[in-house]
From TrEMBL:
Job description of the protein: Involved in the gluconeogenesis. Catalyzes stereospecifically the conversion of dihydroxyacetone phosphate (DHAP) to D-glyceraldehyde-3-phosphate (G3P).
GO molecular function: triose-phosphate isomerase activity
Pathway: Carbohydrate biosynthesis; gluconeogenesis; Carbohydrate degradation; glycolysis; D-glyceraldehyde 3-phosphate from glycerone phosphate: step 1/1
Top-rank EC class of the record's enzyme: isomerase
A Gene Ontology cellular-component term: cytosol
Catalysed conversion reaction: D-glyceraldehyde 3-phosphate = dihydroxyacetone phosphate
Organism: Candidatus Falkowbacteria bacterium CG10_big_fil_rev_8_21_14_0_10_43_10
Swiss-Prot/TrEMBL GO biological process terms: gluconeogenesis; glyceraldehyde-3-phosphate biosynthetic process; glycerol catabolic process; glycolytic process
Name this polypeptide is given: Triosephosphate isomerase
Main location: cytoplasm
Gene3D superfamilies referenced in this protein's UniProt entry, alphabetically: Aldolase class I
Amino acid sequence: MNKIIIANWKMRLGIKESVKLAEQYAQRFKDAARSADLASRKVVICPSEISLTKVREAVKDSPVKLGAQNVFWEEIGSYTGEISIKTLEEAGCEYVIIGHSERRQYLLENYEMIHNKTKETLDHSKITPIVCVGESIEDRESEKRENIIISQVQQAFSGIQLLPNQQAIVAYEPIWAIGTGQVIRPDDVENMHEMIRAAVVDMFGVDVVKSQIRIIYGGSVDGKNVKKLASLDNIDGFLVGGASLKINEFAKIAESL
Ligand code: 13P
């Protein structure tokens, strides 16, 4: 599977700003797609939901793919303010971020909800779920760190099967590294990804993991620290917040992969 780099614009841009940045992405990666090297990397942008349809127009003639930052777990119904997977599909999304730690923190999302959202996505759409896992600073210091991550992965995917044409992404995003400039040590991320890979192999088997599941890293990745991380065996890509708001910085990350 080729590597993937995903921009999470969070709630940082309005509609016009999102379209403007999306146009810069489209231009940058349209040119880059001609180079064999960059053509083999997937680039995904996740703007706010209200910007999706306009951003789709801005990137339609480029290799840049569209993703959403959230989805609801029911197919249709009286769920004020929520958005269904079918609507995201209609808006042109090919990816959706599920269970970001900011949603776990501010909206009290738990792993039952994250599981339901993952299942809904795979059961009712062609969209690839990007399931976020990651520990707090307190968990990091404790001996339970590894168990916490394994249990997050197991809860999110329990009982879920991937059909041969489906993919899933696990994004390891330690909460203490998000937006803090605190970058994880390469050996640390290597260990954590190895452990996550073992957990998904237990659930899905080696072959499915090899061809259908990516494990990517997120947390203060930028143009400077990306080189060390990109060279690791167990990293299939990045989920980038702050650095994805500047096209040059993001392109640097994409080019290092
Ligand atoms: P930063 O890259 O700003 O640390 O954010 C990471 C993140 O939360 C991506 O989902």
